[in-house]
Each structure stands twice: as structure tokens, then as C-alpha cells.
Amino acid sequence: MQPLNASIEHSARRGSGQPGAESATCMRNKVPQVVLAFWVIKILSTTVGETGADYLAVHAGLGTAITGGITATLLALALLLQFRLKQYVPWVYWLTVVLLSVVGTQITDALTDGLGVSLYISTAVFSVLLATLFALWYRHEHTLSIQTIVTRRRELYYWGAILLTFALGTAAGDLATEALGLGFRLGVIIFVLTFWLAYILTRPLGASLGDLLSQSPEYGGVGWGTVNTSIVFLTVITIFVLILSLGKSRPAS
User: Is pTM, for the whole model, over 0.70?
Assistant: First the structure.
């Protein structure tokens, strides 16, 4: 039997269709196992993306261009650190996810609020872009499995897909809760019921939950505000990531 790392490397080469071409960048899988903790942190991350983007846009007072530039720079630094690693490191991975959530939300908000693009159009465009990326990913790698992110190209496809899912999830969530008039409370219920259908639906679920908690009661929310909601969810994310990090570093018995 081949050692585990050798088997993964062989699979990556065969999947890419270019024997030996990816061997220099082959690495251990850098995506966490999709278990309960993964989904909990994912939803919390999308909520922070919604409330964080709302806070930066409304309360920070730096302007859309400056706040967008700051978060894009932070995201670029996080991605650079993530790409330099050769294995999954929980705090780096989830920091990148949170920043992608904020930037993805800002992209959709900029299109909707800044350029006046219809939510119907942005939802359709992001859907086509995501489908195209998945098609290219499968064409080049012959797999869409997130448990075999062991080459640089697969990692680029993976993070590109994550960014598009956040942008699409924001557009679809706003379309459902605002343009279609479902409201924040009903939006949460709907996305909870359909959550299991796809990874992408965690974005509108988290966004609807963030709106429910942060918006004032007169708009159907709880009234925590974007700052308090972001702090609470970031604290919970930090606790979960620390638990995962400690569990990862503990020697197997």
C-alpha cells in the first residue's frame, strides 16, 4: 500500500491531467473536515461578513472606496499567508473565510447600492460565474472534492469559488429578504430549512441571521446593532477555532 501522502500526490497528478507538473506544489489537504464545527463556524463567519460590511459601510465613516481597499488588502495578506502554508492551519483558514465573507458582501453591495445593479441581475451573473468556475475546475482537475485541495491550482479554484459563493449568497439573500419582501425573520426560517441543500446557502442564512440580530425592532430585528453582533460572533468563532487548533495539535492517543 502506498503511504498516504504519496497516494494523495499521485491522485493530484492524475486529476490534473499533467503528470509530474504539480509535484512541486503538492501539499497536505488545506481544507478542514466537513463536520458540525465546520458548518457552525461557516454560518458565524457569514453573519460577521454581513454585520461587518454593514458597520464599515454605515458607521466607520471612511467611505466605500477606503473601507473596500482596507478589507481587500487584509484579504490579500490572509490569502498570501494561506498559500504559503503546506497544511491546514485553523486560524489562518477561518480568518481568510471571514475576510472573504466581508469582501464578497462588499462586492455585491457596491454593485447594488453604488452602481444600481438589480439584485435579479447580480444573482444571475454570480450564478453563471460560479457555474463557469466549477466547470473549469472539473475540466482541469476531474474532481470538485474539497478533500483533495493538495495543489496550488486546486487551491486557487477553491478560494475563487468561496468568494463567488459569498457574493452570490449576498445577492440571493438580499433578493429573498428585501426585493421579494420575505423579511428577515422569514428569511432565517427559509434558509435554515434549505441549508442542507448547498454550501452556498449558508451565506444568506448567516446574512439573514445577522440582519435579524443587528437591525432595530422597527425593521423586524432584535436590535443588537452591527458592533455587538459582530463582537459576539467573532468571539464564538475564536473559541471554536481555538478548540479546533488545540485538537489538531494534540498527539493522537
Answer: no
